[in-house]
Amino acid sequence: MEVDELREEARRNTRGRFEQWAKNPTCEANILSAVHNVRLDKAASAAGLAPGFGQSPFAIARGNAFEAGLFTADAAALRAALERAGVLPAGSRGLLDLRLRQNGGSRVSGVDAALFETEAWLRAIAADPWQADSIVAAPMVRIPKGVILPEALLIIDAVAVTVSAEGVRLTVGEIKVFPDRGGHTDPGQLASARAQAGVYRHALGLALDHLGLTPRVTAADDGFLVFTWPGSNAPSVRAREDLTYQARRAERGFARLEEVAQSIVRDDDFAADNPTLIARVLAAPTDYKEACLSFCDLAPRCHSRAMAADEPSVLGDDVARILGGMTIARALALMAGVAPADDREADVQRRLTQAR
Ligand code: SF4
C-alpha cells in the first residue's frame, strides 16, 4: 500500500480521535482537536510546550501483541476468558476476523472492504442467527451521521454474539493492555475503557437502526472489558459492565461533535497539522480535568490556568465534584468557619467539616 493510501486509511479511521475526545468530552479545545484531526502534540509545540504523550513504541508493540494473541487459534484465549466470565456460553464456536491486514488481520484489505464485510455480517446474522460466529474481531461501523470529519468510522475491538429465541444479541468489548488489579485497578484507566465501550455501544446501536435490523439484532446495554492479568499477557475479562450511562454520554457527545463539525468546519479545512486549525484549538475554551494529565500535551498550560483561576479541578475530580463552581480559597474560608452565603455553601461547609 502506498504511503498516501496509508495516510488516508489512518485519517478515515476515527477511532483514536474518538478515544481522545472521550477522555475529556466537555473541553471545546479537545472537541475541536478531535473534529479537525489536529494533533495535540503539534498544538503543544505551537504553544511553546514540550509534547510528552507520544505513544511509546514499546507500549504500542505490547498492545498489538496482546490483541494479536487474543485472536489466534480461533480466539482460544479470549474465548476461554469470555466463557469463564459468562459472556459466552460454554462450547461457543466460530471466529469472524474482520481486522484490517495492517492491524494483524489476514483477509480484509482496507476500510471499504471492512465496512462492506461488517454490513454483510450484520445482515447475515439477522437472516440466519443460528449460523452466527460467536466472536467477531474488529467490525467497522460507519456512524450514520457526519459526526466527525471526513466521516465517522469506528472499529469495535471485539463483539460477542449470543443467540436466543428473541434474536441476536451483540455485546461490545473493549481491549486494553492495562493490568486488572481487581478493586485496585487504576480508576482512570477503568473509566476510559468504559467510556470507549460506551461509544462502541452507541455507535453499534445507531448502525443497527440505520440498517433496519433492530430488533432482530440488538446491541446489549452491557459490555465487557478485556484487561491483562498483572505481569502477563493472559486476558482478564470484566463482564456485565453496564454501559447505559456511557452510551448516553456518547450520544450527547456525538451530537456536540456534529454541531461543531457543521458550524465551523468547511470541506477544505481538513488537514491535520494546518496552522490555522492549530490556532483554533489553542484559542478554544478549555475545561481542565484530572484525566487531562493522562493524555493531553496541553495539560501543563491548562493546569496553570486552572491554578491561576483557583479552580478545584487542580485537586482532582472528587474535590471538583464536591465544590462545584466554588474556588479553593472560598472552600478554605468555609472550612475555617466563615458564615456560608447560601444553602449550597452551607452544604459544602458541612461536607468539608465532616470530611475533616
Ligand atoms: S489539557 Fe486543556 S486542552 Fe487538553 S483536554 Fe484538558 S482542558 Fe482541554
Sequence-ordered SSE layout with sheet pairings:
Layout: H1 3-12, H2 15-23, H3 28-36, H4 40-46, H5 57-85, E1 95-97, H6 111-127, E2 135-137, E3 140-142, E4 153-155, E5 158-164, E6 167-179, H7 187-210, E7 217-219, E8 222-228, E9 235-242, H8 244-264, H9 275-283, H10 292-295, H11 299-308, H12 317-323, H13 328-335, H14 343-355
Parallel strand pairs: 1-2, 6-7, 6-8
Antiparallel strand pairs: 2-5, 3-4, 5-6, 8-9
Helix pairs in contact: 2-3, 2-7, 3-8, 3-9, 7-8
The chain binds iron/sulfur cluster.
What attributes does this structure have?
alpha/beta; two-stranded antiparallel ribbon; 3 domains; seven-stranded mixed beta sheet
Characterization of the model:
Strands 1, 2, 5, 6, 7, 8 and 9 form a 7-stranded mixed sheet that branches. A two-stranded antiparallel ribbon has the order 3-4. It has helices spanning 3-12, 15-23, 28-36, 40-46, 57-85, 111-127, 187-210, 244-264, 275-283, 292-295, 299-308, 317-323, 328-335, 343-355, and strands at residues 95-97, 135-137, 140-142, 153-155, 158-164, 167-179, 217-219, 222-228, 235-242. Helices cover 50% and strands 14% of the residues. The chain has 356 residues and is α/β, with parallel strands linked by helices. It is built from 14 helices and 9 strands. 38% of the residues are buried. Residues 24, 27, 29-30, 286-288, 292, 296, 298-299, 302 line the site of iron/sulfur cluster (SF4).
How much of the polypeptide forms β-strand, as a percent range?
Answer: 5-15%
What is the structural class?
alpha/beta
Ions, cofactors and other ligands present here are:
iron/sulfur cluster
> How would you sum up the global shape?
globular
Mean pLDDT: 86
Question: Any idea what the radius of gyration is?
Answer: 22 Å
Tell me about the largest β-sheet: 7 strands, mixed
Number of domains: 3
Count of runs of 4 or more consecutive helical residues:
14
User: How many DSSP-defined strands?
Assistant: 9
What oligomeric state do the depicted chains represent?
single chain
